[in-house]
Amino acid sequence: MHTEFKKVAMIAHDGKKADMVGFFKDHMDVLENMAIVATGTTGSHLQKAGLDVDCKLSGPKGGDAQIAALVAEGDVDAVFFFRDPLGKHPHEPDVQMLMRVCDLYDVPLATNPSSGGLLMMGIRDILKK
Ligand SMILES: O=C(CO)COP(=O)(O)O
């Protein structure tokens, strides 16, 4: 099981960006002590909300693929990827690749705010030890 949490990725489809900003605010105390990498537009929302973020390309322009590469290289410890199941995404193959790479390397992946909250509870617990 993954037990080290130094860098996390945050990604949200357009319909879920407000949820992601709310999630960040709820967990700011933990997230501000971690390195954060994000896809471009999600990252700019998080920066505006006060988080120091390494912004990659926008998702449709290759940002999900960049984050997948970081996961494959062992450089990301958890992925918060709030997906919009009602949206159509031109880069769906990249989305699938990112999720596949998380499964391949057994990196925790939360695809909605509730699972994100539960993952964050686990991270908090591990960081306390
Ligand atoms: O498209 C995304 C995830 O697949 C998110 O990309 P942005 O953060 O650039 O909107």
Automatic annotation (TrEMBL):
Gene Ontology MF terms in the entry: methylglyoxal synthase activity
Keywords, sorted A to Z: Lyase
Catalytic activity, as annotated: dihydroxyacetone phosphate = methylglyoxal + phosphate
This enzyme's EC code(s): 4.2.3.3
Pfam families, per the entry: MGS
CDD domains hit by this protein: MGS
Residues the record marks as active site: 64
Domain MGS-like residues, every copy: 1-129
Record: residues binding substrate: 13, 17, 39-42, 58-59, 91
Record keyword rRNA processing present: no
Keyword ATP-binding appears in the UniProt entry: no
One annotated GO biological process: methylglyoxal biosynthetic process
Name of the top EC class for this enzyme: lyase
A GO-annotated cellular component: cytosol
Protein family: Belongs to the methylglyoxal synthase family.
Function: Catalyzes the formation of methylglyoxal from dihydroxyacetone phosphate.
NCBIfam families per the UniProt record, alphabetical: PRK05234.1
Protein name: Methylglyoxal synthase
Species this chain originates from: Flammeovirga pectinis
Biological classification of the source: Bacteria, Pseudomonadati, Bacteroidota, Cytophagia, Cytophagales
Gene name linked to the record: mgsA
